[in-house]
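Please, structure for the following, as tokens.
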Amino acid sequence: MEKKKNVKIEILVTIDQNYIKPLEVMMYSLKLNNLTEIFRIWLIHDNIDPLALAGLQKFATQIGMQIEAVAMNNNITFSDSLLNLHDYPKEMYFRLLSGEVLPQDLDRVLYLDPDILVINSLKPLWELDLKGKMFAAAVHEGLTDIMSSINKLRLGTTAGYFNSGIMLMDLTEMRKKVKIADITKAIEENHDTLILPDQDILNYLYGEDILKIPETKWNYDARAYSVYLTKSAGDHNTEWVMSQTAILHFCGKPKPWQKESHSRFKPLYLNYQQMVNRILAKQK
């Protein structure tokens, strides 16, 4: 991909109304640590209240970002197989189907979960050469990568088990290869073995079409500080994370905005949350 100055970085998020507050924190961290970049946020949703969307639009403008909301239910009809699986929200499939609803002249997008903090530049990831692959994503390997072995057995995959929370996506290739009929069929045939449906389907159907990126740089699992520290023989300490990691991902539960969370990085998250709250208070 040819590098250009001041090119707009296209960000994709897919949330329901419950995740608007975490999204605001994510957006603020993104802007604060990428001050020279221009971002456009594509929000694919199902039925977020118009007043809530208006508030989010106002916040985006306040921090110098552009947000475009796209209602998925106006574009795609979901089968019962997708809607009834383990009571997971259908928003989790929106990222895989985004090529069908985003503008046709958009050729790549960077998907980000809302439960992250961006603490360094995202430009190198945005400009990454996908080498012909459809996605770029990280594998949370841990110390021995036991889970990848389990998932290879469970899903019959041959690649590592990629985390779908941060993905660089080639929309042109996705429009050719990602079909809702294939996703529906895979869910119906593997219903009893799916644990994280969208992530399982990503790995099951498209695992061979994913370029692996370093997890400690682009998808740092905030639960696993001691694992990363041990694996790096003590090199990946807090100072290393703050200077070298671009994305802190608060995987699993509890989330850092919840009282039950005791993550090492919770104070950092709460600091960003406090700054966002101050901005919102001034708006009122």
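The domain at 8-283 is CATH 3.90.550.10 (Spore Coat Polysaccharide Biosynthesis Protein SpsA; Chain A). The chain is about 40% helix and 20% strand.
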